[in-house]
């Protein structure tokens, strides 16, 4: 059981997410789980739900465009576990505070999702679900890591008009969302997949066309870390071996 015991009552719309933590598996969220010989770097992200004027929302960041790994991607606050971190929950809260100024005291931890794997960077990531019980101002704290801070309404993520498919130059196609004030920022990759599949699992997703528009990634998002191609090939080989 991965759900935490809340000290304060959660909003009704977040209850299905809390209940899902008892049954959801890594395979419900991604095709990629850490293989035994991967020796990944353990990391955590904070999937922080709050409420804005338009209703429930999610806190996201746009990574700095000059980073060597996943530049310009929209992601949850988070990062690699430090030796001084007590656990991965501590990692997620610490990173959110360091990156955008989230006060950990105002976050109600709902629970942890299963550990997932990002082959290109070889990170084993544990998503921490949080409820922003006592909100605080947030902004870019470290411009070397974060380009912008976003609070994206859940209703916009569920709106079929904002659902897209994203195409990588390798030929990979995956789920995506158009976000931002002008809906010109692409949310894709690990974060988009996690959001889409979690919403699918709890029954929040609204029907959308599989033939949704395909968007190519902008050049600044295409940098990959050293060794990424080989890890992706190994991950795809493992998936083929698992198929009957």
TrEMBL record:
Cofactor: Mn(2+); Mg(2+)
Source domain of life: Bacteria
Annotated organism of origin: Nocardioides massiliensis
Keyword Cell membrane attributed: no
Keyword line: Hydrolase, Magnesium, Manganese, Metal-binding
CDD domains from the UniProt entry: NUDIX_CoAse_Nudt7 (cd03426)
Entry protein name: 8-oxo-dGTP pyrophosphatase MutT (NUDIX family)
Matching InterPro entries: CoAse, NUDIX_hydrolase-like_dom_sf, NUDIX_hydrolase_dom, NUDIX_hydrolase_NudL_CS
Family that this chain belongs to: Belongs to the Nudix hydrolase family. PCD1 subfamily.
Domain Nudix hydrolase: 39-179
Presence of the UniProt keyword Manganese in the record: yes
């Amino acid at each position: 059981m991965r759900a935490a015991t809340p000290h304060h009552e959660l909003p009704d719309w977040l209850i299905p997410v809390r209940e899902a933590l008892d049954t959801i598996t890594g395979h419900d969220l991604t095709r990629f789980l850490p293989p035994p010989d991967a020796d990944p770097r353990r990391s955590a992200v904070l999937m922080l739900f709050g409420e804005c004027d338009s209703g429930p929302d999610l806190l996201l960041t746009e990574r700095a465009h000059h980073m060597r790994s996943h530049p310009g991607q929209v992601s949850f606050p988070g990062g690699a576990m430090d030796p001084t971190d007590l656990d991965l929950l501590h990692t997620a809260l610490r990173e959110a505070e360091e990156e955008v100024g989230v006060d950990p005291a105002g976050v109600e931890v709902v629970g942890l999702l299963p550990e997932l794997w990002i082959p290109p960077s070889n990170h084993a990531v544990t998503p921490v679900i949080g409820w922003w019980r006592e909100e605080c101002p947030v902004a870019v704290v470290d411009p070397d890591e974060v380009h912008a801070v976003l609070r994206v309404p859940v209703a916009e993520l569920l709106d079929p008009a904002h659902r897209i498919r994203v195409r990588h130059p390798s030929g990979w196609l995956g789920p995506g969302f158009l976000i931002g004030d002008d809906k010109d920022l692409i949310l894709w990759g690990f974060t988009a997949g996690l959001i889409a599949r979690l919403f699918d699992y709890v029954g929040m997703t609204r029907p959308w066309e599989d033939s949704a528009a395909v968007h190519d990634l902008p050049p600044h998002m295409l940098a990959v870390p050293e060794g990424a191609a080989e890890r992706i090939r190994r991950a795809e080989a493992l998936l083929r071996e698992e198929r009957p």
